[in-house]
Specification:
mainly alpha; 6 helices; 68% helix; globular
């Protein structure tokens, strides 16, 4: 090719580039909240699996017969009919508040001292995943312009004896396991209502 042809080709290409600059930028369509829900549901299911594994590990390391309870944990009192009728604003607000409650309980359990030190890496990882789920849920709620629940977080007791911490751990992991199973189902139902 001759130099003149190359120069004309370059000038033509540059003029095209200049013309493109004047075009409006393409509009980004807002993200679909259902995609955010899919991510949150996946995170909740993974957290459920991790909690189940940690609960079994905890039970084998710290065996304790019987049912253990903590009055400060969220209570699941929703029947199957009520679950089917769950609404987006109220359901997400409740999930957020309850998961924050569990987050506070895990922080409390982690500070229990030497009793649970052998499980600290697993409990810490579970706490980090729960925190990520809470943040994603709150982000989704802000995208949907939903208000957060303003329930006060419970005041937790002092750690007490080794046995009291073990009982609290059993109650917490059992309750969190059941709650996450319910939450994963509730999130699927809420997603389908969008």
């Amino acid at each position: 090719m001759k130099t003149g042809h190359v120069c004309r080709l370059l000038v033509a290409l540059l003029s095209l580039c200049e013309g493109l600059r004047g075009l409006p930028a393409p509009r980004l369509k807002p993200s679909d909240p259902r995609a955010d829900f899919d991510s949150i549901i996946s995170l909740a299911k993974n957290l459920l699996s991790d909690t189940k594994h940690l609960f079994h590990h905890f039970k084998s390391r710290y065996p304790a017969e019987g049912e253990h309870k903590m009055d400060t944990l969220p209570v699941l009192s929703m029947s199957a009919v009520e679950l089917a009728n769950i609404q987006v604003p109220g359901g997400l607000a409740r999930l957020s508040a309850d998961l924050q409650n569990y987050q506070k309980h895990l922080e409390w359990l982690r500070r229990a001292g030497p009793v649970l030190r052998p499980l600290e890496p697993e409990v810490g990882a579970l706490h980090a995943r729960l925190e990520r789920l809470v943040k994603r849920l709150e982000h989704l709620m802000s995208k949907l312009n939903l208000s957060r629940a303003s329930d006060p977080l419970p005041t937790l007791p002092s750690h007490g004896t080794h046995w009291a911490v073990v009982q609290a751990g059993h109650a917490l992991f059992h309750s969190l396991h059941l709650y996450l199973d319910w939450a994963a189902r509730a999130l699927v139902l809420i997603r389908n209502k969008l």
